[in-house]
Specification:
Elements (H helix, E strand, L loop, with lengths): L1 E5 L4 H4 L3 H9 L3 E6 L2 H5 L6 E3 L6 H10 L2 H8 L6 H25 L3 E4 L5 H9 L3 E4 L6 H16 L9 E4 L3 H4 L5 E2 L23 E4 L12 H9 L5 E5 L14 E4 L4 H4 L5 E4 L3 H10 L3 E4 L5 H11 L2 E4 L6 H9 L1 H15 L4 H11 L3
Parallel strand pairs: 1-2, 1-4, 2-3, 4-5, 5-6, 6-7, 8-9, 8-11, 9-10, 11-12, 12-13
Helix pairs in contact: 2-16, 4-6, 6-7, 6-8, 12-15
C-alpha cells in the first residue's frame, strides 16, 4: 500500500503524525510525508519527507491574513477566536501547499491519504485520486471542526464546492479532558526529533526539576514567559531549567538555581521532572499528560487558552495568565499530590488507547488492501 501523509509546515503539525507513519512503514507499506518549512526538519528521513512548498513562509503569510481581519486577530491573540481564526490561517497555508501536494501525489499515486485537520490539501488529493482519506487528530480540538474551519477558506480559493468526508477519523485526545469524540481512538505517542542532549536530564536530580518551555512557532513579539518564571522562582529550592531560552532571558546573568539548555526530547525527560511550565501548545500539553507530569499552562493565543483551561478543569495541571505566575503557583505545581494523581490518571487513560501499530490493519482495510 502506498500512503501519502500530509501535514502543515510546522513542527507541531508533523510530529503527531510520525508514530502512525512509522508504524505504516514498519508494516511494509510505502510512506511519504508531504510538508514544508519547519516540518521538514523534524520528519525522520526514512519517512521520505518532501518539500511541497519551497517558497512558503508561514510567518509573513499569517501576518497578511490577520491584517485583513483585525477584530478577529485581536480575539485570536487573546485565545478567544474559536476555530475561525485558525481556519483562515491554515486554509491560506493549504492553498499555498495544494499544487505541490497534488504534484507529489501524481508521482506517488497513493492508495491512502493520511492528514491532520489543518492540512486540507490532503482531503483534496484523496478526492482527486479517488482514494480514502484518514483524518488524524493532533490536538484537543475536534478534528472534524478544524477541518471544516480550514476548508471554509480553502475550498473557495481552490474552486471546490465541497470535499468528501474522511473515511476514518483517529482521535487521540483523552476523553476525560475533552468529552466523548466520534471516530476511532488512537493513543497519542509523544515524538521528538533524534538530536543529541545531556542524558542527565532523563534522570531525577537532587532538587525538584522545573522545566520551562516556549513555542516552536516564531513570534516577532517579545516572549516574557521565561523571564516571568525566573523572577517567580527566585530564592526557591527548585532546579529551574529553561529549554531553548529566548534572547531576552539570557541578556543578564541568571540567578542561582536557574540554568539553560538547548533542545530536549520531552518524551524522555518529562518522567524525571517535577513539573513543566509552558506556552500551551497541544504537543507539549499531550506529551506532559502522557508522562503523568503536572503542568502549568500559561494562557495565550490560538488554542492555548482552551488547552490551559481543559488541563486545569481535569485537575492534571494549573492554568494561569502570564501576569499571575508567581512563587506560590510554582511551589504548588511541584508539590501538590492531587495534581500528580490526576495527571497520572490521564496518563493511564491515554496508555489504554490502542497504539498506532494496532490501527495499521484497519487502515489497510479502509484502503481496500
Amino acid at each position: 500500500m502506498r500512503v501519502l501523509v500530509v501535514a502543515s509546515p510546522l513542527t507541531g503539525h508533523v510530529l503527531p503524525l510520525v508514530p502512525l507513519a512509522r508504524a505504516l512503514r514498519d508494516a511494509g507499506h510505502a510512506v511519504t510525508v508531504a510538508t514544508s518549512g519547519d516540518g521538514l526538519g523534524v520528519c525522520p528521513p526514512e519517512l521520505d519527507p518532501t518539500d511541497v512548498a519551497p517558497d512558503l513562509r508561514t510567518g509573513p503569510l499569517f501576518l497578511r491574513v490577520m491584517a485583513r481581519h483585525p477584530r478577529l486577530a485581536r480575539r485570536d491573540m487573546a485565545g478567544r477566536g474559536g476555530t475561525r481564526g485558525v481556519g483562515l490561517l491554515f486554509g491560506a497555508v493549504g492553498v499555498r501547499m495544494a499544487d505541490g501536494v497534488l504534484a507529489h501525489a501524481d508521482r506517488v499515486r497513493p492508495d491512502l491519504v493520511v492528514h491532520e485537520p489543518l492540512a486540507v490539501a490532503g482531503a483534496e488529493v484523496a478526492a482527486r485520486h479517488g482514494v480514502p482519506a484518514v483524518l488524524v487528530e493532533g490536538n484537543l480540538f475536534d478534528a472534524r471542526e478544524l477541518l471544516a474551519a480550514a476548508g471554509a477558506t480553502y475550498r473557495p480559493a481552490r474552486g471546490l464546492a465541497d470535499l468528501p468526508a474522511p473515511a476514518e477519523v483517529l482521535s487521540t485526545a483523552p476523553p476525560s479532558l475533552v468529552g466523548p469524540r466520534s471516530g476511532r481512538p488512537m493513543r497519542f505517542v509523544p515524538e521528538a526529533p533524534d538530536r543529541p542532549f545531556d542524558p542527565a536530564y532523563a534522570q531525577p536530580g537532587e532538587r525538584p526539576r522545573l522545566l520551562v518551555s516556549r513555542s516552536t512557532v516564531a513570534d516577532p513579539r517579545r516572549d516574557r514567559l521565561m523571564t516571568t518564571v525566573v523572577a517567580a522562582a527566585a530564592g526557591s529550592d527548585l532546579d529551574v531549567v529553561l529549554v531553548r531560552p529566548d534572547r531576552w532571558v539570557t541578556r543578564r546573568p541568571l540567578p542561582p538555581g536557574v540554568r539553560t539548555t538547548d533542545w530536549l526530547p520531552f518524551p524522555e525527560v518529562f518522567p524525571a521532572a517535577a513539573g513543566v511550565v509552558h506556552h500551551g501548545g497541544a504537543g507539549t500539553v499531550l506529551t506532559a499528560l502522557a508522562a503523568g507530569l503536572p503542568q502549568l499552562v500559561v494562557r495565550g493565543a490560538g488554542d492555548r487558552r482552551v488547552n490551559a483551561d481543559l488541563v486545569a478543569a481535569r485537575g492534571a495541571g494549573l492554568a494561569a495568565d502570564l501576569g499571575d505566575v508567581n512563587r506560590a503557583l510554582l511551589d504548588r505545581l511541584v508539590s501538590d499530590p492531587a495534581l500528580r494523581t490526576s495527571a497520572g490518571e490521564v496518563a493511564a487513560e491515554m496508555a489504554a488507547m490502542p497504539p498506532p501499530v494496532e490501527l495499521v490493519p484497519h487502515l489497510a482495510a479502509v484502503a481496500g488492501r
